[in-house]
Amino acid sequence: MIRLLKQSRWSPYLVGTGVGVLSWVTFGLMHKALGTSTSLVSMAGAIESVVAPEHVKNNAYYTKTMLADGKFFLDWQMMLVIGLVLGAMISAWLSRSFKVEHVPDIWAARFGPSRALRYAGAFVGGVLLLFGARLADGCTSGHAISGSLQLAISSWVFFACFFAAGIATALLVYGKAGRRNAQG
Amino acid sequence: MLKADPNILNLVYGLLTGLVFGFLLQRATVTRFRTIVGQLLWADHTVLRTMFTAVVVGAIGVYAMHQMWDVPLHIKPATLLANVIGGVIFGIGMAILGYCPGTGLGAIGEGSRHAIFGFVGMLVGAAIYAEAYPWISTNILPVANLGKVTIPDQTGLSPWFFIVPLIGIALIVFAVLPGRREGADRGLPGKTLAPA
């Protein structure tokens, strides 16, 4: 057991089973489905409402997640998001796989070692990621895992589209050299 | 700004779920740029193995509980045009950032500094969507909107008619995908005691 806790990489089948069983607990005990991206809307709204409270109150999308008094809800899912960061931190610490990374090697092989460029790339990727997740009404957790396991039509459509677009983009951006690097 | 759920149990449950979820994702190494982009480059199939296992195991338990104890499902609406366009934009973003929202948060926890800029980008992406929402809700969301439907709903067949074949497909996919030298065996930090 201790050996397993220190091991830095678990079989993907073990982890997949763990996530599947975790979803039994969230559905059965908590009456919730695993998801993360809705909380990012609440966080964005909460931050934006510091500078422009009226603007946020009048926005039709924010009002869907906002409470009646204009505040955003620190709820089950937002705690999950906080726990996720901490859980990964604890796991990395126990297995000694904590690693400060500024520029991933596959990125550096294509775009060079500039931190600023990588940070800008990560930012742009993040913008697209959440815009897409909100348009589709879910992300990898909420749609591709929680939704697919419920055999939801929306989720299987999302899953197929994001995977195909992700593969095409990755091959276009990182190319054959990236693929060799990822294999090596 | 923020107001906490007065039901403390919900907050505790959420935190515990997140701790376990983050722990598991980190151990699968899917909180690494290399693993996610490696999957999209079709060089490392850790993501597919992890997700497909989670979906199959989850489906069995959730549908069993749904049928035996009336545990409610949480289906997202099939606004098909939005699901397609959103999925494509999401996929492009995932290839550039190298994470999805959940694994990106986990990446921050295990030390990937660039993922912090990805997180800031995600918040901005959410805010831009909120601005675009009035137009999207009249022009995109109503197109091909089937409502909150599942494949069993739409076909009138039992969910097990799909879950059982899905188990078979998963086993075949796992057997067929090349599996040499993935994750920590390819220079990720930390010690691997037993090859997966």
- Give me the secondary-structure category of chain B: mainly alpha
Overall pLDDT of chain B: 91
Number of domains of chain A: 2
Distance between the termini of chain B: 46 Å
Strand residue content of chain A: under 5%
Characteristics:
heterodimer, A: 184 residues, mainly alpha, 2 domains, 10 helices, 73% helix, 2% strand, globular, B: 196 residues, 8 helices, 65% helix, disordered C terminus
Task: Give a brief rundown of this model.
By secondary structure, chain A is mainly alpha-helical. Chain A is built from 10 helices and 1 strand, in the order αααααβααααα. Chain B is built from 8 helices and 1 strand, in the order βαααααααα.
What does this structure look like?
The complex is a heterodimer of chains A (184) and B (196). Chain A has 184 residues and is mostly helical. Chain A folds into 2 domains: 1-99, no CATH class; 102-184, no CATH class. Chain A is built from 10 helices and 1 strand. Chain A has helices at 2-6, 12-28, 37-51, 53-57, 62-65, 76-94, 105-111, 115-136, 140-149, 153-183; one strand spanning 72-74. The radius of gyration of chain A is 19 Å and the shape is globular. Chain B is mostly helical. Chain B folds into 2 domains: 20-75 and 156-190, no CATH class; 77-149, no CATH class. Chain B has helices spanning 8-27, 33-40, 46-69, 80-97, 101-109, 114-139, 151-155, 160-176; one strand spanning 2-4. In chain B, helix 1 (8-27) packs across helix 5 (101-109) and helix 5 runs antiparallel to helix 6 (114-139). The N and C termini of chain B lie far apart (46 Å). The interface between A and B is large, with 145 and 145 residues. Strand 1 (72-74) of chain A pairs parallel with strand 1 (2-4) of chain B, so a sheet runs across the interface.
